[in-house]
Amino acid sequence: MTQPPEAQAHALAGARAEAALTRYWAAWDLANFDAYVASSTPAMRESLGVTDGDSFAAAAADYAESVADMRRAVIEIALSGDDLTEAIVLSEESARDGSEYVTEHLRHRLVLVDDTWLVDEESVID
Q1: By the number of CB atoms within 10 A of the CB, which of 64, 116, 119, 122 ranks highest?
Q2: Where are the alpha helices (DSSP H) in the chain?
Q3: What pTM was computed for the model?
Q4: Dmax over Cα atoms in the chain, in whole Å?
Q5: CATH code of the domain in which 40 resides
């Protein structure tokens, strides 16, 4: 059965927002500054204090040292705006802390800029 056009647009926008968040995570995992810039807004980078290649390299190194066996999962995607221009993505990250896993729940706000989803905010919700 074919979905109505509105449902198809909603599903596509949700999939694109999730892919954008995955690209953002990969930028950190690979310490790739260009990918980080391509997947986040200037406001997001400024809020983290990570706005240039040097600060990103240092932050990415600290990040890599702080996580082991990182697991991530998207829990929920909520789209808003008449033209689906904002997404709230709830996710879960688990990382090894010694012999056990520690889990955080995160909220990411993504915005659609020039037909590209970008991470604009990130916060821990637990």
Answers
A1: 119
A2: 5-30, 33-39, 42-48, 53-66
A3: 0.85
A4: 51
A5: 3.10.450.50
